[in-house]
């Protein structure tokens, strides 16, 4: 699976960073309860704020990390963000109130640039012809970590308590950053003299806005993440409506995690197919399958129907991230790839915030099944929009070739 040292090191580092970063999520609300005697509404409200603030801050920070990586070297950014995340999690073990925890989660958002920077580093050093396969392989490390992280975090919190869990988590992330420091050899790659010219942030933004395909890819990342996260806060309640058993928490966790399992299984496969027939085509196919597998979740009558559909949904979504990254690798000059990938990551982070908000509003007004209707419609509209933009870009490319030949 691994052909080079950098890919192997980054796979391992991404696994541990993703796992460690999600270790604290299962007990975040319980940790808030240790600060005092609060009402359930207070804890739920602050849990939402503290969870969302990281992604909101990261929305603004991601393009800056991408730009710094393009200009000063991505290995340096990986080390800086890795140790920064480790420090923020370590300090969480010493907080005494929700405001201190909110501040540290916000700081964590500032330094949450490790995984997108790792994608940019490997992308820049990968041939365009096999970008999908390589980036799909790297994505497997991130998804695997995200799958095992909450499970490990929950077990640690039950076994050794919150303080030691934060400490262990920070040590693991620091070790991942140290692995990058000694295991990664970064090669500065330029493709031609024209791409070596420095571009301002305004120029990079204009490049994205004026390129219809790049712009639709950014919007796509937001929509897919919004749809994916829209149901997650409501999932445990939805599962409870399907069951009368006592192990609701476990089965809700299973319904949540099985999407990641499908993602893990399929992400490299989709990347390889993108290398063969075009990443834009795979993105469109995955969008259609995502909509088709998301909608029936509103009509399930048993937990196992839900689990199967969420697994299939995970398989479809698994092709979008590596193919979007590979598409950017093919279309964007190397010296600004990190920044463009940073903007793409920003839209994904924004989806992490808008998804639960949209899902909560829809579920509160029309019931949980309505969340599946709305999110499926969003995915379908995104697929249609992507198709027309792709066809328009394809026709424009054909006209240019025809003009050159004449």
TrEMBL record:
- Which parts pass through the membrane? 12-32, 44-65, 77-95, 101-122, 134-156, 162-184, 204-228, 248-270, 282-300, 306-328, 349-366, 372-390
Gene Ontology MF: a single term: transmembrane transporter activity
Question: One cellular component GO annotation, for this chain's record?
Answer: plasma membrane
Indicate where this protein resides in the cell: Cell membrane
Provide the membrane topology annotation.
Multi-pass membrane protein
- Per its UniProt record, what Pfam families does this chain match? MFS_1
Q: Which domain of life is it from?
A: Bacteria
Q: Where is the Major facilitator superfamily (MFS) profile domain?
A: 6-394
* Protein name (Swiss-Prot/TrEMBL): MFS transporter
């Amino acid at each position: 699976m691994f052909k080079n040292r950098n890919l192997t090191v980054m796979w391992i580092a991404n696994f541990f960073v993703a796992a460690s970063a999600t270790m604290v999520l299962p007990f975040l609300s319980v940790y808030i309860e240790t600060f005092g005697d609060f009402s359930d509404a207070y804890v739920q409200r602050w849990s939402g704020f503290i969870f969302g603030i990281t992604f909101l801050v990261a929305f603004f920070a991601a393009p800056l990390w991408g730009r710094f990586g393009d200009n000063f070297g991505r290995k340096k950014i990986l080390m800086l963000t890795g140790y920064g995340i480790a420090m923020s999690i370590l300090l969480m073990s010493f907080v005494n109130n929700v405001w201190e925890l909110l501040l540290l989660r916000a700081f964590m958002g500032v330094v949450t640039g490790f995984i997108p920077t790792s994608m940019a580093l490997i992308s820049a050093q990968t041939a365009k012809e096999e970008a999908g396969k390589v980036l799909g392989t790297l994505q497997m490390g991130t998804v695997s970590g995200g799958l095992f992280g909450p499970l490990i975090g929950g077990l640690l919190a039950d076994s050794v308590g919150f303080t030691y869990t934060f400490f262990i988590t920070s040590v693991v992330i620091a070790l991942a950053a140290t692995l990058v420091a000694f295991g990664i050899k970064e090669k500065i790659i330029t493709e031609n003299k024209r791409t070596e010219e420095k571009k301002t942030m305004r120029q990079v933004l204009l490049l994205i806005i004026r390129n219809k395909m790049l712009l639709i890819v950014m919007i796509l990342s937001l929509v897919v993440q919004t749809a994916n996260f829209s149901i997650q806060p409501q999932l445990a309640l939805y599962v409870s409506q399907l069951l009368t058993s006592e192990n609701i928490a476990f089965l809700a966790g299973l319904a949540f995690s099985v999407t990641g399992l499908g993602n893990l299984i399929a992400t490299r496969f989709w990347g390889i197919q993108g290398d063969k027939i075009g990443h834009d085509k795979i993105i469109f196919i995955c969008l259609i399958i995502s909509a088709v597998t998301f909608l029936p979740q509103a009509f399930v009558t048993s937990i196992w129907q839900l689990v199967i559909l969420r697994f299939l949904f995970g398989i479809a979504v698994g092709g979008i991230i590596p193919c979007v990254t590979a598409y950017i690798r093919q279309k964007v000059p190397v010296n600004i790839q990190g920044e463009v990938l940073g903007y793409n990551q920003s839209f994904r982070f924004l989806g992490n915030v808008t998804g639960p908000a949209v899902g909560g509003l829809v579920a509160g007004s029309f019931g949980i099944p309505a969340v599946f209707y709305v999110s499926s419609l969003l995915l379908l509209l995104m697929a249609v929009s992507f198709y027309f933009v792709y066809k328009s870009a394809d026709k424009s490319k054909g006209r240019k070739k025809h003009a050159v030949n004449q």
